[in-house]
TrEMBL record:
The keyword Metal-binding applies. The keyword Iron applies. This is Fe2OG dioxygenase domain-containing protein. Pfam families: 2OG-FeII_Oxy, DIOX_N. Residues 187-288 form the Fe2OG dioxygenase domain. GO terms for molecular function: L-ascorbic acid binding; metal ion binding; oxidoreductase activity.
Length: 339
């Protein structure tokens, strides 16, 4: 396996292969950026119409929002975060024994991006990835160490999966799409990604994850209480997504942009590193099964709003996503020729 960053970073200066070209380097960090402007949606409120409106506005303007009073117990969030940190704190040997390094397996561990072998430069991240559904089938592939991993993460993914259905239910109402639209193959294959960004010798020269859109419907992200790292690209500026304890960060992925025929925005974001502390996050990718067709919802397509995207099986979209680092090329691949 390529060497996990966590195995060698300590005491080293930043290797050349992690120094990014000037145009994508974060450069000066700590310059004032707009803070606290990502909308926060209180899901505990009783005015559903108002909640839907806030979610839709945030999804159109930023492609990002945070949710509070979301119903997932705080102690479960703490336990999940702790067990994710414990996983990445294990020895490289233990981690390797617990999962495969084969990207086609149900559970695997990789470093940088899923293109390590072909990428020109690397990124400062180690990630554990596994599928979550159906739980009875998938859990056997998850790490057995830390010993609490399966127990805690199965409770966590069950709860977050319900939250995903709630959020997509609200989005479907807002878009005027049938609520059943998202209860079939489009959300059948959720995936958990446990990201770990060790302390970095020079955060100005490299990134944890470069600018990207998530290849899914939505991502529900758990981040640590006191560490920034996730940034959203809006109006040519990077905006920090400041942690709110026990909140989730939700972002719209490119697949939902396609389904909504461009009404919602698959947000561009990246992850910066920091030199003081390791940062761990857990992404819950709400994603389609391989054979499911992804295409604009029929009710959103008419003569004044023609389909911007063609219809294709999710697996074709995802394979293209994995090999394409150029965003424009991927857009071209999914757009209709007339759009
Ligand atoms: C991702 C992602 C953000 C973070 O997993 O796609 O953007 O802060 N993660 O780890
Ligand atoms: Ni992402």
């Amino acid at each position: 396996m390529e060497q996990l960053v966590a195995s060698w970073y300590n005491g080293r200066s930043l290797p050349e292969t992690y120094v990014l070209p000037l145009e994508i380097r974060p450069g000066k960090l700590n310059v004032p950026v707009s803070t606290n402007i990502i909308p926060v949606v209180d899901l505990g409120g009783h005015d559903e119409t108002a909640i839907i409106q806030q979610i839709l506005e945030a999804s159109q303007e930023f492609g990002f929002f945070q949710v509070i009073n979301h119903g997932v117990p705080s102690n479960l969030l703490d336990e999940a975060m702790n067990v994710c940190k414990e996983f990445h704190a294990m020895s490289a040997k233990d981690k390797a024994v617990q999962c495969s390094n084969d990207l086609n397996k149900n559970c695997f561990l990789y470093t940088s991006s899923q293109r390590y072998a072909t990428e020109k430069y690397h990124f400062w991240r180690d990630s554990l990835t596994h599928f979550c559904h159906p739980l009875e089938k998938q859990i056997q592939f998850w790490p057995e160490k830390p010993t609490r991993y399966r127990n805690v993460v199965s409770k966590y993914t069950t709860e977050v999966s319900k939250l995903g259905s709630t959020i997509l239910g609200l989005i479907s109402k807002g878009l005027g799409v049938s609520p059943e639209h998202f209860s079939n193959g489009l959300t059948e294959n959720p995936k958990m990604i446990v990201n770990h960004y060790p302390p970095c010798p020079d955060p100005t020269l490299t990134l944890g994850v470069p600018k990207h859109r998530d290849p899914v419907l939505i991502n529900i992200l758990l981040q640590e209480d006191d560490l920034c790292g996730l940034q959203v690209f809006k109006d040519e500026e990077w905006i920090d997504v400041e942690p709110i304890p026990h909140a989730f960060v939700v972002n719209i992925g490119y697949v939902l942009q396609i389904i909504s025929n461009g009404k919602l925005k698959g947000a561009e974001h990246r992850v910066v590193t920091n030199s003081n502390s390791a940062r761990t996050t857990a992404s819950f990718f709400v994603s389609p099964s391989d054979e499911t067709l992804i295409e604009p919802a029929k009710v959103l397509v008419n003569t004044s709003s023609p389909a911007l995207y063609r219809s294709l099986p999710y697996k074709d979209f995802h394979s293209k996503f994995l090999v394409t680092s150029d965003w424009k090329e991927l857009e071209k691949f999914v757009r209709t020729t007339s759009a």
